[in-house]
Amino acid sequence: MDIELLKRSADLRSLADIRLVTLEDGPGRGQRILVARNAAGVAFEVAVDRGFDISSLSFKGTNIGWHSPAQMAFPTHDPGSEDGWGFLRNFDGFLVTCGLDHYSKPSEVDVSHYNHPHLATKKMPLHGRIAAEKARLISHGVDTETLDISCEAIVRQASVFGETLELRRKVTLPIFGSELTIEDTVTNRGFRPTEHAIMYHTNFGYPFLDDTLTIGGLPDEVTSEINSSPPRPDDDYGEKVDVVDNRVTPHQLPVLLRNPKCGIEIAMSYGQAVLPKLAVWRAYQSGVFALGVEPRTDLRPIDGALLKPSEGRSYILTFGFSRFEKQQQGRHHAR
């Protein structure tokens, strides 16, 4: 505990804060949001009722995360609606967790391992269901001992005669630091084995995403392909996805995203042993304009193994934010 600091700011609100609020207007009306900021210029929001995902992120006043046309819709739409494409009506924010038993396109899968009395197969919706589930908040606050901002919650995805999966998530940010950490544990709380798959759909938006942004830390051929087509809105752009498997084409972390116009660099790290694949999603269509960097597990385990009752998997992601000399109109100047 820093006594001298507490003498100047009794509860540290002059330096950092995290507050639980409820939205009162617009498409997101009624949902709980945790709003946090620190002394280093990092600010984020956690959507408590949308998978405990990070809905907004900024650094030094510059928006980093993606804000979609869906505008944080609440109540969330059923991901299974529209033939399994309902996820797209909810899709919004810096971090959207996809899982916990499926990601990718809608597909029909075998569910015999559940011993379901009525179904032999089940249709999985686009990117699973967890991002549409409400969280049970465990804690949130500013710790005067560790000088950290943190929040923690449990999000459950469950069905009678189906999966009972629990995501326990803790988000931590030092009061004076610029590294955001997400710690997850996914546990099978049922009594039958279950499939488990997770993808961290991390989305960057304007103004951090602009035509001067570059990406690094990936295999050369992927980096060259992405950086050769600078991000610019295009009415006719659909999407492009590049997938890297670290077991086939090893690459060194962190993944670096850098924008000279903003003078901001982001270093993204995660455990490649448990998240062996990474996708880069380019969706530069006008009005969408997003770049996704998506660490993921295998969709279906190579060895076919299921998550046993009470068995868990843990994941850690970190995002480091830094400033460098800003470029503007062809000239460099310090800010």
TrEMBL record:
CDD domains: Aldose_epim_Ec_c4013
InterPro entries named among the record's database cross-references: DUF4432, GH-type_carb-bd
A GO molecular function held by the record: carbohydrate binding
Pfam assignment, any one: DUF4432
Name listed for the protein in its UniProt record: DUF4432 family protein
Organism: Rhizobium leguminosarum
